[in-house]
Design goal:
With 502 residues, this protein is of the alpha+beta class. It has two domains: 324 residues, Beta-lactamase (3-Layer(aba) Sandwich); 125 residues, Beta Barrel (Lipocalin), CATH 2.40.128.20. It contains 14 helices and 22 strands. Strands 12, 13, 14, 15, 16, 17, 18, 19, 20, 21 and 22 form an eleven-stranded mixed sheet that branches. Strand 13 and strand 14 form a beta hairpin. Helix 2 crosses helix 13.
């Protein structure tokens, strides 16, 4: 019995040590640290949130701040949610670059390899000297040599986007001319598929996504089964922050070197000039699918405000998803309210501000429509089928149900009916197959702004997109005027026009 007790206590001690090690590993992201313990005041984070809501209303969808590998604060503006992946647009490029770095480390390629060497069957009959000189390095730096992005030549090729890209004229010597070029990033994805036999997403699963705890990421593909590379990736905000933390740690994660330190340093450093405006975060230089920022920072970013901002001197990461026409304004909020408030040492705990911050982040909401719950028109039009003129949403008819307790709008297409719940003073969620972005979760709020005018707000809460719609009813006529918050091209869309079916 005497020998039992020392062994027993030794086992307990070992278990406690194991638990502490596990806790330390988990604390690379999670933890019970307060902002003050990490050297930034709760009030500074509150000021960032307050300024965002005041100056950029309904634009921020989420944020996640890390300091010293621990969570400072995070928040999601309902109907956006922490467990829902968000469309990243060009923030996807930074993940594609990382795949190239891993592939080079594995000996599958060199960034000095010629592009045409990977696709001997798809090069044009006549190969220009500039095309022949184009290397992976040039694609990474957006120095492919094109005078402008060859989107039409690439995407409109009926056989192969690769063939389309290689057929486009290369006006400049590669490496000498910066042009932002999503098609160049697509080619990086195509090269990964060529040398590995796997789609980009699958190649990164065991090497990046799974070690970071990113489960089943979605990456959209073209008709040839090649991941877009330059866009098309969906991730949670916390996943973006983890990626930033991996970069901050020079490619190391929980003791494992997922990406070589040399690659991270090279990819996130100035590689080429892209302008000279000292006030613009788009003219501070470019790395390998990473933007250099003012204040000695760097970032990956995507259209309409998807950010992975890495702050090496501050040992901090800021992940943001949003839907903004002014991406510089979103960064300016961070530069003003967060960046100068990262201190070298822990701060005295401000319990009142900390409690206020926790309350605020647990109750973030996008503003719903302001209007009356009902009008005399609601009973008149509810249940009526409005047959629509030909339109870009592919709708045949709309049915409004605005008198029942559970209010809804039913969109009828040629093959499907989508009953979308409608919230009054709040957002309610459903699904619709939008032609521009595919089947998406959609959260809807409504209110009567006049007796015969219904205001709607749709948020496609896996994307940056929101749609404001004013529906007016005049006799048996219905008109829905629509405008996107952000869009590639004009935000105002052609009105949906319908007539009550008798």
């Amino acid at each position: 019995m005497k020998s039992f007790y020392p062994a027993f206590f030794l086992m307990i001690i070992l278990e406690l040590i194991s638990f502490q090690v596990l806790a330390q590993k988990k604390s690379e992201i999670k933890g019970n640290a307060t902002p003050e313990s990490l050297g930034i005041s709760s009030q500074a984070v509150l000021d960032f949130i307050t300024a965002a809501e005041k100056e950029r209303p309904n634009e921020l969808h989420s944020f996640f701040i890390l300091r010293h590998g621990k969570e400072v604060a995070s928040g999601w503006w309902h109907p956006y949610e922490s467990e829902t992946a968000h469309m990243l647009y060009s923030l996807s490029k930074s993940f594609t670059s990382t795949a190239i770095g891993i592939a080079q480390e594995e000996g599958l390629l060199s960034i000095d390899d010629q592009i045409i060497s990977f696709f001997p069957d798809e090069v044009p009959d006549s190969i220009s000297s500039n095309l022949k000189a184009m290397r992976i390095r040039d694609l990474l730096k957006m120095n492919s040599g094109h005078n402008q992005e060859p989107m039409a030549a690439t995407m409109q090729n009926p056989d192969s986007w690769v063939k389309g890209f290689l057929s486009a004229e290369v006006e400049h010597k590669p490496g000498t001319h910066f042009v932002y070029n999503s098609m160049a990033t697509f080619m990086l994805s195509a090269i990964i598929t060529k040398v590995t036999g796997e789609r980009l997403r699958d190649y990164l699963m065991p090497r990046l996504f799974e070690p970071l705890g990113i489960e089943k990421p979605k990456w959209e593909q073209n008709a040839n089964g090649i991941d877009f590379g330059g866009w098309g990736l969906y991730l949670r905000t916390e996943d973006i922050a983890k990626f930033g933390q991996l970069l901050l740690q020079k490619g190391k994660w929980k003791g494992a070197q997922l990406v070589s330190e040399a690659w991270v340093e090279e990819a996130t450093s100035f590689q080429t000039s892209n302008g000279s405006n000292p006030e613009s975060d788009w003219e501070q230089g470019y790395g390998y699918q990473f933007w250099m920022c003012r204040h000695e920072l760097y970032r990956g970013d995507g259209a309409f405000g998807q950010y992975c901002i890495v702050m090496p001197e501050q040992d901090a990461v800021l992940a943001i998803t949003s839907g903004s026409k002014d991406m510089q304004a979103i960064m300016n909020l961070a530069w003003k309210h967060l960046l100068p408030n990262f201190k070298d040492s822990p701060l005295k705990q401000d319990e009142a501000s900390f409690k206020a911050l926790r309350k605020k982040t647990s109750n973030l909401k996008l503003y719903p429509v302001k209007g009356s719950e009902t009008s005399s028109k609601a009973k008149e039009i509810s249940g009526v089928t409005f047959a629509l003129e030909p339109n870009d949403w592919g709708l045949k008819s709309i049915v409004f149900n605005l008198t029942d307790k559970e209010k809804s709008i039913t969109f009828n297409t040629m093959g499907d009916n989508y009953k979308i719940p409608v919230g009054i003073g709040e957002y309610r969620k459903g699904y619709f197959d939008f032609p521009q972005v595919g089947r998406q979760s959609v959260a809807t709020s409504a209110g009567w702004i006049e007796n015969d005018a219904l205001q709607l707000m749709f948020f496609l809460d896996e994307t940056p997109y929101g749609i404001t719609a004013k529906v007016t009813f005049n006799g048996d006529q219905m008109k829905m005027e629509r405008e996107f918050n952000v869009f590639f091209g004009p935000t105002k869309q052609r009105s949906l026009v319908g007539k009550a079916r008798k």
